[in-house]
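Example 9 (inverse folding). The structure is encoded as follows.
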């Protein structure tokens, strides 16, 4: 007899804690390894340290599902610096939940996406972001063409006018 699959619980969002840096760094490292178009510039330990810095600055919100961190968003003011999900966590609404939390913080957000990352581009368009510019990427570590996206809270713009 096959046991029924346990249903996934709704994600809980919370501020990241210093002890989360290892899990977040692992998620970021796995994303780098998975993306064939992305240069492999950083070791996992470097990514853990980077996540630790973002956590220390208070930028990071994590999505916890069934007791395990499945994704995170890092926001520095209006800039979305990172939004990553663990392998197998895509398509479950976690990215949308993290983005909704980021949108609650202010009337405008912006981010850059590497142009080759078609899945991320589709995601941000679904989330109401618009393309506002392109770059050759010469000002980034990856040196890959990227696209700037912006989101504006239409309710805020309507009340301001």
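The amino acid assigned to each position is listed next.
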């Amino acid at each position: 007899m096959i046991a029924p699959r346990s249903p996934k619980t709704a994600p809980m969002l919370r501020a990241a804690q210093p002890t989360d840096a290892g899990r977040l760094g692992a998620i970021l490292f796995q994303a780098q390894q998975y993306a064939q178009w992305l240069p492999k510039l950083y070791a996992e330990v470097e990514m853990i340290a980077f996540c630790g810095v973002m956590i220390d600055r208070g930028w990071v919100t994590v999505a916890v599902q069934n007791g395990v961190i499945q994704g995170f968003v890092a926001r520095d003011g209006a800039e979305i610096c990172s939004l990553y999900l663990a392998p197998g966590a895509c398509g479950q609404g976690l990215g949308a939940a993290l983005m909704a939390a980021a949108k609650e913080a202010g009337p405008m957000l912006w981010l850059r996406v590497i142009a080759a990352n078609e899945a991320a581009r589709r995601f941000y368009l679904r989330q109401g972001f618009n393309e506002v510019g392109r770059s050759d990427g010469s000002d980034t570590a990856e040196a890959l063409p990227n696209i700037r996206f912006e989101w504006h809270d239409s309710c805020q713009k309507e009340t301001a006018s």
